[in-house]
Protein 1
Amino acid sequence: MKHDVLFLLRHDFEDGPGAPYYCPECAEINGVLHYYPDLRHHVEVRYVDYRRPRPEIVSLLGEANQSCPVLVLRDDAPAGLPDVGLSANGHRRFIAGARAIGCYLSAHHGSGRPH
């Protein structure tokens, strides 16, 4: 992979009766991308459907790691950045959750960090 790949859920998904939903953590990361548009030059953003399985994520991280948001790191991404919880599935490293992703983006790409 040339860039880290960020998976976010598409908004307005159905999950039972009533109004459509959005994922609060994905909305937080979308806000970060809005605040720091240059991040889109360093991170490939892919939107996926709410319904599981999510084949694009499963093919990279396995069925147990298909929650969103998730940032799949390119092979030569730095390791051991402060405040970042790295996980792995085989040789693939990834970061799950909005706050951890925000800390990585800050440390690696110079954006602001979550408070």
Note: The radius of gyration is 14 Å.
Protein 2
Amino acid sequence: MEFKDMDIRPELISNLAQHGIVTPSEIQARSIPAIMAGHDLLAESETGSGKTLAFAVPMIESLQHAHGMVQAIALCPTRELAKQVAGEFDKYLKHTDLRTVTVYGGVGYEPQIDAIPDSDIVIGTPGRILDLMERNALKLDGVRYLVLDEADRMLDMGFIDDIEQVIDATPEDRQTLLFSATIDYRIEVISKKYMRDPILIRAKSQEVRGHLFQGYYVVNPWQKISLLHQLLRGHKDWVALVFCRTIVATDHVAAELAKRGIDACALNGDMSQAKREQTVKEFQDHKFNILVATDVAARGLHVDGITHVFNYDLPDEAETYVHRVGRTARQGANGDAITFLSEDDYRKFDPIMDRYDDEIEKLTYHAWGRLERIPPSPPRPPRGEGRPSGGMRGAPRGGPRRGPRR
């Protein structure tokens, strides 16, 4: 099936074709007819599945410009994702008189407030949308479509109260479209509370993945910066994301790498919105190749050609690890994901090892130079029995409960 086989206007079909989009992805082929038929939608879709067009096409097809009335609202977890979604809409609105506005924090209110009365579709973060509602600058009583994009991330970030206040301000007869990378009990609670007999769709990513190599080093905390420098030096063609747990750590790691001649910049929530956007744009343009970021700052960040992901600090949740390493080995290219593992991280690393089984290899450095794969550790014993020992010279005793198997 192609877009021309769907019940949408020739102008929109032509616009899609001009951008090289002729055949819908799985999520688009299954979602668009359901939305156009008036159903609520609960969709599980990975990054790269084409979900933005899945809800954009029905809106563009069915809405007409109405001054002073917001007809659709899309909630996104981060300002970066909101801008990305808005950019997709704007590409396909050329044959219509529909208008969008993107709203997020970190910038002034006035330009957003001035744009709202003439906008049909509002795309933004929950906090800023709620702020605008409280200022009586944004009214949602005319909303026909409510989109919760990457709902699981919004819940991870603690937006549930804001989301519920926004939903409560929309009409009961609206269409609710919820997209999430995973549908867990939290998503099910929202679905039962706010949706009317939603159609459930599960779709895979359309993106061609390359080979992802995953490895870890057992290191003392004070060894991390030296090891990272040794791994990065001499590789100016690498494009790397380095994940740290705290804002302070991002600044420290970026500064230490810069002292050692590595062109690195930090990205964190302490930066102004303008500075964040400038840093992301320069990274996308490859004006520097090493970005040191927190998970919150990097959410919604899409950069092509990332060759390496470094877990300088291990995340608290296995799902966050999955999101991190998914930034590389994309669009058919290969990529490496390397974790620096301290003794305090062993317990958190176990569920990650459980998830990836024997895909994560234990690594060591010989004289801080040549990369070597160490012999595999014995298979992990049943829980409650002894733990295998291992590690590199100078590292703490012990290690994750499982080594690589052959």
Note: The domain at 3-203 is CATH 3.40.50.300 (Rossmann fold).
